[in-house]
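Below is a filled-in request sheet from our internal design queue. Each sheet records the structural input a requester submitted and the sequence that came back. We keep these sheets so that new team members can see what a complete request looks like end to end.

REQUESTER: design group, bay 2
PRIORITY: normal
MODE: inverse folding
CHAIN LENGTH: 84
BACKBONE (tokenized):
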């Protein structure tokens, strides 16, 4: 329940921030606001692709680290040391 309420409050805060930011941008210059919104995909799409690649690499690194840790535990623990 707490996780849900924390997430909901974060979403509401982000929506309020976005709305206020857009209002201020439009009040300053609607032309520049439209230009910024038109250019937004040029930054969002590569960021998502890079984020997905980084997540995949992080998972692979964690799996390799877990495998190495398991091998070291098996080889250097007391029962593993007596087998050698």
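RETURNED SEQUENCE:
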């Amino acid at each position: 329940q707490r996780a849900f309420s924390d997430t909901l409050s974060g979403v509401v805060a982000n929506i309020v921030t976005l709305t206020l930011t857009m209002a201020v941008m439009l009040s300053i210059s609607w032309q520049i606001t439209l230009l910024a919104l038109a250019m937004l995909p040029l930054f969002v799409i590569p960021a998502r692709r890079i984020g997905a690649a980084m997540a995949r690499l992080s998972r692979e690194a964690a799996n390799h680290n877990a495998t190495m840790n398991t091998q070291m535990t098996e080889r250097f623990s007391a029962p593993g040391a007596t087998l050698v």
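SHEET NOTES:
- The radius of gyration is 24 Å.
- The chain has one domain: 2-83.
FILED BY: M.R.
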